[in-house]
Design a protein that fits this description.
With 198 residues, the protein is of the alpha+beta class. The chain is built from five helices and 13 strands. Strands 3, 4, 5, 6, 7, 8, 11, 12 and 13 form a nine-stranded mixed sheet that branches. A two-stranded parallel sheet has the order 1-2.
Length: 198
């Protein structure tokens, strides 16, 4: 039975409920360089933890250009052409009590059929680059409450130049636009902005 177990490319073995592996199994595991984990948790709890961990580690991932924030408890991605004021808008939102997740290159992963989770790469954590001001440490300036580590993506606000707005287009209209992110359609709202205005 041990030979069949290790012949099937077993990656790891878990013992739950405070059980300990028999010595013969340890010897087989050492021979095949297979780790054995022991826990006092029940098998149901271990499976739950493993599903949670593996769903995030093995999920499809993508990096999008923009600023990802928590605005009124909603995960909102600010996108648009360079120089339109995404970072300035993000800084203004932070000063009003909303929270920064990631600037410039947030990472998104699909962790469930209807959930896209966004987070910040470690190298960018706490920082926001604002044109004319440089790289700001938001945590040092506004405290821990101004930073959030991750959030579900629920809305994309795409900033467009006021000049690109056609005369027939109502700047207050909200057509039903979506963006496909990892196979999930996320609502998009286009907001025309003038240069230097947030």
């Amino acid at each position: 039975a041990y030979e069949r177990l290790f012949r099937s490319d077993t990656i790891a073995i878990f013992f739950t409920d405070s059980l300990m592996p028999p010595l013969e199994l340890k010897n087989f595991a050492d021979k095949h360089e297979t780790p054995i984990f022991c826990s006092n948790l029940s098998s149901t709890e271990i499976i739950t933890h493993l599903r949670y961990f593996l769903a995030r580690e093995l999920a499809d991932k993508v990096i999008l250009h923009g600023v990802f924030m928590e605005v009124s408890s909603l995960g909102v991605m600010l996108t648009g052409e360079s120089g339109l004021g995404k970072s300035e808008l993000a800084l203004e939102l932070v000063t009003r009590g909303h929270r920064l997740i990631a600037d410039d290159a947030p990472e998104f992963m699909r962790i469930a059929p209807d959930i896209i989770m966004g987070s910040c790469p470690p190298i960018l954590l706490n920082f926001l680059e604002v044109r004319g001001l440089g790289v700001l440490n938001i945590r040092k300036m506004y405290g821990d409450s101004a930073i959030k580590f991750s959030k579900y993506l629920r809305l994309i606000i795409h900033l467009t130049s006021m000049n690109s707005l056609s005369k027939s287009e109502d700047r207050l209209s909200t057509p039903q636009l979506t963006k496909n992110v990892l196979g999930l359609e996320i609502p998009v709202i286009r907001v025309p902005v003038a240069a230097g205005r947030n």
